[in-house]
Amino acid sequence: MDIDNEMQEGMDELHLLIILFAGQVWRGATAEEAIGHIAKYGELLAPAMADQLDPAAGPKASFFRIVGRAMWNNLPQPAQDFRLTKLSEPGRNDPCFCGSLRKYKHCCARMPEFPIVPAMMLEGLLETMPRKHWNKLAGSSIGRDSMLQVVLMWQQEDCHEKVAALLEPWFKGEGAIKNVDADLLDILLESYVVLDRPRKRKSLAQAAIARGENVARGIGWQRIALMEAEAGNDDASRRALAEAQRADPDNLNLGLLEVHLLITSGNTTMAQERAKFWAMRLAKLNDPDLHDQIAWLREVVLNPQAAMMQMTRKGGDDSIAELEKLLADAPPIACHYRLKPSDGSTGPFAPDAKLGKALKDWNAAFPSDPPSLTWMSTWNEAAWDDADAWLALLREQPLLWNSFEVLDDLVIALDGCGMSWVRDELIPPLLERALALFDLVLEKQGTAQLKCEWGWHENRPALRLLARKAVDGMESSDQEERDAAFGLMRRFVEQLNPHDNHGFRVRVVAGLIERGLAAEATALAARYPDDLADMQYTYALALHVAGQEAKAREVALSALQEYPKVGKILLAESPRKPRKDGREGYTPGSDEEAWLYRDEHRPLWEKLGALAWLAELARKGR
Ligand SMILES: [Zn+2]
């Protein structure tokens, strides 16, 4: 038997002795009776402990008497309102309590007390007390530290029902909730979160606000702030947090919570300001225990998204941390697709036998939720309900990292994970990988210049990933990244997928105009005479900039006539934003279509000084 096992056995035996001892005291035994019982039966009940004793040190019963005495001294006494009552020490020349018959000063006075702490005894006592009597502890003189240690331990062991059963009686009734019980209050509120009892959570938080001393009141408000944030009520959440800070200005956790809520509700700039404030305030306290908090707040100031990612990793969101690790360890890209190009097109992206087999497992494990045929994007929350299964597959079959279907599924799942910082951290490398893989496949199959059409549903995961990379990249603050993304979108429209719009054509035409490539812009726009208002107006702009004035006027006049609302709202100084009709997308000819065009393209018209030209045509056309 190894040391660990021996220790464990000893601990189990001690636990048994504690329950036995506490049970006797609970039923009314005196100190002498309870200690005498342990001395008598200790060797029998705890053979592993007894075996470890040095026979030369004296009779084993003496040892168990010492253990029993330590138990009594650390046991919250039910008959004394759960206070500790220590046995008095014998006089130095009196016989020792252990029964050795030696003088105390020559015996146990020289020994350290057997290592038992009140929390161990309290736990044993609770185990032996019928639950219906647990309410006797509420508001008693019991040491709050021991209470805390016990409930924290239960919390760690996921015994949240027990935590709630023990703590609920503490906050029943109408009495004030004292600051000394604030930690217990917080733990009970937390157990309601885990047990998914929102009504109890809310009414306890409200009780703390109504009849708590200031720290308890602060905790009540803090919980309300969290609940409002969960419900998406950012304003109410902020108000509750302000109340919490007013009630308990010294609670440093509130600073962290405030910053956290600001980031999750998208108020990044404000979060950075507040993080700066709290970091300075905490730093002034000069407390080494606050080091981690301060470091995190400073990280928020520099990079809020990365700071939240840090917290997600540490906070035990295992699936996200695991996915991040697997992605970092993903094998180099390799081509596992077989294409049969024909007619200038790659044909469908068919996985080879090996990847096809792995994908069967993947599709069985991953709750896929691809967008409907016409939509480009969607999100998937269900994937996180049982992420272990598909994470295990990714670990066991790294080949899956070379599948567009898998990469697409992961991006859609990350969009549904509800954490913007996780999206920002993990989606870009997935898209990067998708683009590299796409180029590799086309190169290996000798199809680098061909079309890869949306019409083949097998191609959609890859195309969706490429389109996403282009769209995201064009939002970048970095000019080089924006140019690369524009190049990709142009390739998407001009080479890969010329037969489907996705709203990209007009963006490419506008991008070409913006980059001084008006001739290319007109050539591209001319290919799509049937595209709607946005394309016709932008085509007119391209022609005007390219100096093809006659054709420009003709296209502009026809656009103004066919889509008058777009022209009107584009030219208006400060038009009113139309209300959404509640449906996704917009209807051609609607105010919303006009508004969207203005919103996206007016800056370019302004930049090129073309608004006056269009206004003039609009006047003449009327
Ligand atoms: Zn002794």
Describe the structure in your own words.
The chain has helices at residues 3-26, 31-45, 47-51, 60-74, 118-128, 144-156, 160-167, 182-194, 198-211, 214-230, 234-247, 253-264, 268-284, 291-302, 304-314, 318-328, 353-365, 387-396, 404-415, 420-444, 460-474, 479-496, 504-514, 518-526, 533-546, 549-562, 564-571, 591-607, 611-621; strands at 337-338, 350-351. It is mostly helical and 622 residues long. A two-stranded antiparallel sheet has the order 1-2. Helix 8 packs parallel to helix 10 and helix 23 runs parallel beside helix 25 (533-546). The longest helix is centred in the last third of the chain and has 25 residues, at 420-444. It is elongated, with a radius of gyration of 36 Å. The model has no long low-confidence stretch (mean pLDDT 90).
Q: What is the quaternary state of this protein?
A: single chain
- How much strand content do the residues show? under 5%
Structure annotation, total helices? 29
Mean pLDDT: 90
Hetero compounds: zinc ion
Give unreliable regions as ranges: none
Separation of the first and last Cα atoms: 99 Å
Strand order of the largest sheet: 1-2
Query: Helix amount, in percent?
Result: 55-70%
Instruction: Characterize the main sheet.
Output: 2 strands, antiparallel
User: Would you report the number of β strands?
Assistant: 2
The shape is elongated
Structural class: mainly alpha
- Supply Rg: 36 Å
